[in-house]
């Protein structure tokens, strides 16, 4: 696996430091929302790429919350560009009614914006009190930069990256750093 890495874009220490800042900002906003008004906090991680980010983020958020997962596919198998987002119903555990909830969607990366657009639409229909989006990475391309995301940790160049939850053909999610892969990896599949 290590032999497949071309270069490290963001290492584990930089991720950890940035997550401290990001969690602080999110905690301040959510505490303000729930201080005087009604509502519970619900985090919605997008499977599978968002799970490592979620795990590290929530342990920095000292506030009561529930987790409700959603599964969205857009990069099936060995695809390295979006094929259009669709929801996987069996793996999605979203309550029908979110009218007492402040919702924060957590995903690994913002690329075409198709995933978050779809997810926001589906959640909005369930009438949350507030709805925010949070991604670890945002690609420096117009579709991602124009998307109105509430929180992001890093802007990255328009490259295909893996590690820290992000996959290629479902592999490499367990790499602790965010990296690019050598060309021979894509040539094989
Ligand atoms: P979007 O729907 O095009 O914004 O892309 C969001 C989803 O595509 C993410 O949740 C990822 O699963 C996947 N994705 C986009 N870019 C990359 C990448 O560079 N590496 C791995 N997965 C990616
Ligand atoms: Mg994903």
Structural account:
This protein is of the alpha/beta class and 189 residues long. The protein has five helices and nine strands. The strands form two sheets. Strands 2, 3, 4, 5, 6, 7 and 8 form a seven-stranded mixed β-sheet that branches. The structure holds inosinic acid and magnesium ion. Inosinic acid is lined by residues 46, 49, 74-75, 82, 85, 107-115, 160-162, 166-167.
Q: How is this structure best summarized?
A:
This protein has 189 residues and is an alpha/beta fold. It has helices spanning 12-36, 51-58, 114-124, 142-145, 183-188, and strands spanning 5-10, 40-47, 66-67, 70-73, 86-87, 101-110, 130-139, 151-156, 178-181.
The major pleated sheet works out as: 7 strands, mixed
SSE topology string: EHEHEEEEHEHEEH
What's the N-to-C terminus distance? 15 Å
> In CATH terms, what is the architecture?
3-Layer(aba) Sandwich
So how many helices? 5
Gyration radius (Cα, Å) is 16 Å
Give the CATH class.
Alpha Beta
Provide the residue-averaged pLDDT: 94
Uncertain segments are none
């Amino acid at each position: 696996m290590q032999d497949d890495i071309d270069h490290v874009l963001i290492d584990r220490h930089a991720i950890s430091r940035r997550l401290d800042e990001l969690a602080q900002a999110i905690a301040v906003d959510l505490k303000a929302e729930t201080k005087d008004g009604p509502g519970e906090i619900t985090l919605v991680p997008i499977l599978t790429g968002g799970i490592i980010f979620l795990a590290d983020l929530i342990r920095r958020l000292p506030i009561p919350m529930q987790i409700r997962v959603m599964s969205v596919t857009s990069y099936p198998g060995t695809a390295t560009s979006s094929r259009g987002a669709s929801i996987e119903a069996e793996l999605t555990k979203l309550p029908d009614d979110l009218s007492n909830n402040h919702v924060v969607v957590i995903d690994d990366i913002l690329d075409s914006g198709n995933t978050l657009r779809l997810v926001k639409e589906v959640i909005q229909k369930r009438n949350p009190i507030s709805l925010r989006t949070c991604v670890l990475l945002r690609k420096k391309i117009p579709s991602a930069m124009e998307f109105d995301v509430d929180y992001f940790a890093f802007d990255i160049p328009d490259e295909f990256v893996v590690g820290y939850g992000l996959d290629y053909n479902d592999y490499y999610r367990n790499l602790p750093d965010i990296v690019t892969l050598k060309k021979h990896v894509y040539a094989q599949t």
